[in-house]
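To whoever is on call:

I kicked off a structure prediction for a single chain this morning and the downstream step that reads the tokens threw a length-mismatch warning. I double-checked the sequence; it's 656 residues and nothing unusual in it as far as I can see. Pasting both halves so you can look.
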Amino acid sequence: MRTLVTIFIVSFFACSPVFSALSGSVHLDPENAEPSKSIELRYEAGDVFRHNSAKLYAFVSVFNDVDVYPVAYSFPLEQSGDTYRCDIKGMPANAAYAMIKIGDGHRFDWNKDQMWDLLFYKGSKAVRGAHMRCALSYLGPVVPNLKRGTDFDKAKHELRLEVQNYPDNVQAKIGLASMLMETGEIDKAEYTRRIEELVMSGYDKTKENEVRAVSRALRAIGRPADGDELEQGYIKDHPTGDLAEESLRSLCYQSQNQKDFEERLMRYLKSFSYTVFSDRMYIDLINSYLQQGNGDEAIRLIRAYPVPAGVDANPPAAILNMFAVSLLKNDSLLALARQYAERAIRSAEHPANSVRPKFMAEEEFRYANQEVEGISHDTYGFILRQLNQPADAAVEFQKAVDLLGDAATAENLEHLSEALVASGKQAESIAVMRTAIRTARALPQTTQRFVSIASPDQDKNRQELKALQAEAHDAKLTILRQSKMNYDIQKVTFTSNDGKKVHINDFQLTDLDGKTITLADLKGKVVVMDFWATWCGPCRMSMPYMQKVYEKYIDNSQVKIVLVNVWERTADTSNAQKLQTRTKLVKTFLTQNSSYTFPMMLDVTDAVVSCFGVTGIPTKFYIDKQGIVQFKEVGFPGADVFVDEASDRIDALLND
């Protein structure tokens, strides 16, 4: 992560009382409401929920001035045709800022991945922290059920408003200084001067948000010991706060071996009982033992799972299902795998077995549990199929598909289709295969089986397959066209350290032979630009599938796929040194991974990646022939969907 992000306590979204999107619009009245007042919300449905019959809610994620994570509220909407209304009320007295989405708990109108904003006021002025939280939202969400595109300019604007309203807001002033340095409006020396001045002028060491901001700023200006001392002092006085949790969680992942990790994790669980991260870390520990073939230790951990307060079962369904999946890989352990899968289903059927995070509303949490239950049924069905019980397996697979709904994957539908055929239910299997193909969720073996058994006439079956695939492709392209970002990055103006106005095309990318290009040089082509680093695990995981995408379009002169190396952890200071070191790093990486033949470029000064507003890698941008950014993907979604989704985006831009 960049310095900018580690200084901030990353949060969520933007600002204005009326918002419009392709999918719908939200109107708030009054515009400048106090937390204690009732606010009328009116939602005009777009394509997402037009002619909808499901019960919709306004999901409101509320931030205060101090805490890292929001608290989620949901308000049922009253429907009149395609217009929906509710009153937002009962907000906490310390509410500063909220983000809104509309949905049923499973499907949502995200306002083109921006959501809608609600700033709380006192009189004519936004309350303390409102503009700051709004600014932080443009740097990326801290919880998975919120969305927002990165926009440094909007973040700076909101931070300036916060500092203007509350000149003593230390976190906002540090954040603004960090943003100005990141975008080249002040240099490192000026940034250091401002931070030193803020530290000397005093701050409240009893407020976690100020301690976080100051400690991270101290590290950024080369005073890590002072930053550590400040944080440790606060943690000593507040051992159960978010900062203490974050510090101990970081310590867990710094463990050098399994024993240290387990000891630290148990201390973490004893101190914090349950957080959004605790199950994930517990699963990581169990997996590490399973990967080493140490099943006894994994079973010991399963049995020793510390039950959070208020939870009825031990352990939760996600852990039980994960263990069943790991065991089913060994035929001799199928009976044991079956036991854990059955336990996972029983656990998932009872919501009291899970702890709802405060940032997730009840309706969202219910669907999340339903998804775990569906996945557990799929695991159980897979085990039954391995035990040669196809009829029973088909029943479980059907339960999985019913529970998952449109979240059911190609693998889920293939499992069901194959089990139905094996149990003599060919007509039902054909219906499932038609659904899979029509909705672009068919694996190769699914389409092959369809051609073989849909009817006695295989030529007729191939014609139907082609029609179903065309239907699926057209539907996906329509959805993609509606979700375009239309972000003309080449018109965005930045300010360099010397005060000059610059654009992204003033910065160059360099290939491994020293040749340079700018984004403008790629106009006329559909471009996939993937930012990565040699130390980034998810980046490396995605590369075999980027290679497949590259090979698919290698003969298409209208498509350019390029991986851009950024953020390498080197001590080089001059650009010449950076170029030399990064070239060597990437060449060594390619030598060790000789199957990769896609073009590699270097963002030597990390200027291009900053212009794109990237806050985490891997991040991929899909750019149309006019040089306008249309799609963005952060992280690696998984091998089973990446190639198809990348291809769909490229095809949508080629067809424009």
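Update from on-call: the warning came from a stale cache, not from the record. Cleared it. Sanity check on the structure: Residues 1-21 have pLDDT under 50 and may be disordered.
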